[in-house]
Amino acid sequence: MVAIRFGLALDFGTRRASLDRVLAEYVPLINLAERYGFESVWAGESYPTAPGGFHLPSPLLVLAALAPLTSVRLGTGVTLVPMWHPLRLAYDSAVLDQLTGGRFVLGVGLGNAGDWARFGVDRAMIGDRMDETLEMLRALWAGQQGYHGRLLSTDRGIGPLPFQPGGPPLWVGGAARRSARRAAQYGDAWYSSTNYSFTTIAQQVQRYLEALAVAGKDPAAATVSINRLTFVAPTDEQARNEGGQYVERVLQRYASTGALRAPEDEARNAPYPLLAAAAEDLCLVGSPDRVSARLADYAATGVTHVQMRVAPGDMPATLIAQTITLAGEQVLPRFKP
């Protein structure tokens, strides 16, 4: 098998408990995952308009709270850069990198039109502003006394500087061709969102590898990370029956925002229609053998890192632990670097 490194992508937004209780519930699960060889924990960013969203508007704060409670790497999957002032992001990322002792990875993405409108972001310039923001982060993290671009400019540097020389790694998301070029030019990896299909991932990985070559970087050394809704049970049937409702909640949320297409009519009679239609394309749901087979497909496209999203839809801790344990015992060893 091709080597893959694994992390946990956790959903921190919920109505069932306050965030301090959610963190207390997750820490033993993170420790369990670390013992099995999971190397990182990831938190997404979103801007819900009511309680209960699966991501929070402040992932850096969540990761700062986790920093003293675990020794794994901590990353954002992803930070929505257009909603940040570049200086604020440079400062906060540097502080978090210090708090983690250099274990922070900044995953970045553009977000969606609804968030841009709420934050008053100029959609026409969003791609150019994103590029300059990443350039500005690199410059300030390296200790430069200012940055001057076409859209962004500052005359002074920042302090403290990040713990990692030059700053935390930048893992750049996005499904467009320009996103692949951006990841190659300004980033250290390409990062796939939960709702990207297998076909989209395969296509974007190829674009990214080609862009790396154009940028004079070695495609063979590429880091390609994907985020997949994951539930593992002893059998495929158990996985659907035990975990289906929780995975379905997240898929339905994506569908409600237009980020995921609803299934055709013939799939609507299934107990979990979106899962029935999208399981192979978007999820890792099934027995250890089934999940391992699908991971091998991803590895063949060039994927090197997989963030297993193991806590979807307010899934109980016992079921999360089941996925971590079965994956740790029967899946991760097959892809050991």
Secondary-structure blueprint of this entry?
Blueprint: E1 5-10, H1 19-36, E2 40-43, H2 59-66, E3 73-80, H3 86-99, E4 104-109, H4 113-118, H5 126-141, E5 147-148, E6 153-154, E7 170-173, H6 177-186, E8 189-192, H7 198-214, E9 224-232, H8 236-256, H9 273-282, E10 283-286, H10 288-301, E11 305-309, H11 317-330
Parallel strand pairs: 1-2, 1-11, 2-3, 3-4, 4-7, 7-8, 8-9, 9-10, 9-11
Antiparallel strand pairs: 5-6
Helix content: 40-55%
**Strand order within the widest sheet?**
1-2-3-4-7-8-9-11
Helix count, DSSP H or I runs of 4 or more residues? 11
The CATH class, by name, is Alpha Beta
- The rough form would be described as globular
Low-confidence stretches: none
Structure summary:
The chain is of the alpha/beta class. It has 11 helices and 11 strands.
Structural key phrases:
eight-stranded parallel beta barrel; globular; alpha/beta; two-stranded antiparallel ribbon; 337 residues; TIM Barrel
Walk me through this protein's architecture:
The protein is of the alpha/beta class. It has one domain: Luciferase-like domain (TIM Barrel). Helices cover 44% and strands 16% of the residues. The chain has helices at residues 19-36, 59-66, 86-99, 113-118, 126-141, 177-186, 198-214, 236-256, 273-282, 288-301, 317-330, and strands at 5-10, 40-43, 73-80, 104-109, 147-148, 153-154, 170-173, 189-192, 224-232, 283-286, 305-309. The strands form two sheets. Strands 1-2-3-4-7-8-9-11 form an eight-stranded parallel barrel, surrounded by seven helices. Strands 5-6 form a two-stranded antiparallel sheet. Strand 1 (5-10), helix 1 (19-36) and strand 2 form a beta-alpha-beta unit. The longest helix has 21 residues, at 236-256. It is globular and about 60 Å long.
